[in-house]
Amino acid sequence: MTKIRLHINDLTPLSWFALLLLWSGGFAQAGEAAVDPGDSGTDVIEDVTDDPDSRSSEVSAEVEEMVDPVVHESSVPLADAVSTAGSKAKSLELLGARVRPGTSKRLSWSATELFEGVPVSTPVLVLNGAEPGPTLCLTAAVHGDELNGIEMVRRVMHDLAPKEVSGAIIGIPIVNVQGFRRGSRYLPDRRDLNRYFPGNPNGSAAARIAHSFFVNVIAHCDALIDLHTGSNSRANLPQIRADLRDPDVVTLTQGFGSMVILHSTPSVGTLRHAATRAGIPTVTLEAGGPSELELNEVRHGVRGIETLVNTLGMIDKKRFWSDPEPVYYRSSWVRADNGGILLSDVSLGSTVRKGDLLGTINDPMSNARSELRSPYTGRIIGLARNQVVMPGFAAFHVGIQTADTPTEDAIDDSVLSKKQSETRDYIDDMSEEE
Ligand SMILES: [Zn+2]
Description:
single chain; about 425 residues; alpha+beta; Aminopeptidase; CATH 2.40.50.100; 2 domains; 19 strands; binds zinc ion
C-alpha cells in the first residue's frame, strides 16, 4: 500500500491558511459523522492567486499531468470474464490482506493524512464469492456530499452472502472521506477528486489520492459502477451514464433492468474515464441529489445493481428486473434566462413536449415572472430543486428521444456536437456532470 504524506514544506502561506481554517472547522465537528445540511457543498471560493495549490475546485485535471494507469491485469472482456465458471475460485489479495473464497472482509484504504499527521482511512468492503467469476466494484461518495450511493453500497454488500456469489464484489462506500466529513463535494484543498483520475503519485493532493485509490483498489476490478447524485441542489432521475461507443460498456449497461440509460462521454479525469481507459468497463449510476438520503432513489439503485449482479451470473436469485427503459443518445440542459426564484412545474421522469412549461422564475423584487419552456420533446432526467438562480443556471436536463437506435457514426456525430457545446460552457459543464 502506498502511503502519501502531505509535506508541510510544500505548503504555501495561502494553503496553510486554508488548511488551518479547514482543520479548525473539522476539529469543531470531531466525532460528528452527520453531514451539515446547511452546507450545499458549494465551497468554491474565488480564485485570486496563481498558486496552483490554491485554485478553485472547478479547475480541470488538464492543468496537471496524469500518469498512465497500470494496464489492467486481466484483459478478458466483461462478457467473457463472467464465463470463467469451472475453474476454481481464488483468494483475493488487496490492501495487504487476503480474502479467501466464500468469505468477506472489511479492509481499509488510506491515501492521505490529516494536517496533524493522522491517517485518514476509509472502509473497503470485500466479498469474495465461493465460486469463480468477475470482480465488480462499487464506488460511492467520490463527491463527499453525495449520500445516496453510500447507502446503496451498504445495502448491496449486506444483502449478499459470499456462499451464494460467483466472483467478487468490492464496495467502497465513501471514497472522499475528507469531503464527507465536511459535508462537501470537494477535497479540503477545494479540488474535485473526480477530475484527477488516474492520478499522479507526485502531483497535487487530489492527484495523489486519486493515484493511490486507482492503483490499490480500482486495479483489482473487472467492471466498475461509480455512484453519484446531481450536484449543487440538482437531482437526477436514477440513470446510468455510459459511453455507448464502447462494446464492453454497452454489455454492462444492458444488465441493469429498468434504468434509464444516457449516452455520455466521460470528462477527462473522471474515475469513469480513467478506469474505462485502463480496460475496466465503467458506468456512472446517478440517482437523486446531494446532501440528502432519498430512499426511493436508493431502492431504485440497489435494485438495478442487484439485477446487474444477477445478469452477470454472479448470483442465481431470479431477481430479474425487466421492463427496459429508454436509452437516450442525446440530452440537453435548459438554462434560466433570468435571475430569481425558480419553481418547477415538472418533476423527475415527466415526459415533456416541445413548448411545454418546465418552470417559472419570479423576480422577488419586481415580481416579474418569466417562463422556462422545453425546446425539445423528451423526458426530464435531471432538474434543479426550487432555489434562487442566476441567468445561465442549468435548470432542467431533458433526455431527447430519438426515433431509432442510431448507428455508431450517428453517436459519434452527436458526441461531436456535444463536444462543441462543452467548449462553449465549459465551467458550467464541470459542475453539472458526475
Ligand atoms: Zn458526483
